[in-house]
Amino acid sequence: MPRVLVVDDDPTVSEVVARYLTSSGFAVDTAGDGTTALEQVAANPPDLVVLDLLLPGIDGLEVCRRLRERSSVPVVMLTALGEESDRVLGLETGADDYVTKPFSPRELVLRVQSVLRRAATVTGAAPVAAPATLQLGDLVVDLTAREARRGDRTLSLTLREFDLLEFLLRHPRTAFTRAELLEKVWGWTFGDQSTVTVHVRRLREKIEADPSQPSVLVTVWGVGYRLEPPDVAA
């Protein structure tokens, strides 16, 4: 049974979310502030964290930053309706997905299930298909270990960054629009395409020799993005 930590300072929100998640087959823990959440994650790591952006003391962005320093646990962030800057900040900090308030608890459950499926932590998830590794130049992804490397450097990737890199490695030198990546990597047929833009920028910071002048994950003007064979000398 996957276990979810719900972090929100509003007891009503926590109670409703916990009830829906429990009825959908999840074990649920709750925390009312960032400090408590970090302590609970350290003591008993969950399979996923639902994290409110606005928390007393340590806010949700800082909690997410600290989680990313020590863990790759998937994070679904709760943000205010219409605050695109908050959503972008959350994604840049390392959140894997977000839901805007006010939200449908059923939608949140579906997002949690989707992220956990991507993380291959849900019971009964299909085994990784062959090949076990994907490689383009000195860029290598080990699908079994869910580990990515460039040369002798291990890349610290979030769930979505890894999924994006894996997908692009499966389709080198193929240009994809943001809408296509949103559907093929995130599994969404609609949604905020800035999600893709943010994750591309974050992935570039980790795989490019100079992220300001990308040569591996390149922009195809008027279309979207394409993965090019890395220059091993870089």
Structure, briefly:
The protein is 39% helix and 22% strand.
Task: Give, in spatial order, the strands making up the sheet with the most strands.
Answer: 2-1-3-4-5
* Main beta sheet strand tally, sense and closure: 5 strands, parallel
Helix/strand order: EHEHEHEHEHEEEEHEHHEE
Mean pLDDT comes to 85
State Rg.
18 Å
Q: Given the structure, what is the number of helices? A: 8
- Give the strand content: 15-25%
| DSSP strand count | 12
Helix content: 25-40%
Instruction: List segments where confidence is low: pLDDT < 50 over at least 5 consecutive residues.
Output: 121-131
Distance between the termini: 44 Å
Helix-strand category: alpha/beta
Question: What's the oligomerization state?
Answer: single chain
Write structural notes for this entry.
- The protein is of the alpha/beta class and 234 residues long.
- The protein has eight helices and twelve strands.
- A five-stranded parallel sheet has the order 2-1-3-4-5, sandwiched between helices.
- Helix 1 (11-23) links the parallel strand 1 (3-7) and strand 2 (27-31).
- The termini are far apart.
- 34% of the residues are buried.
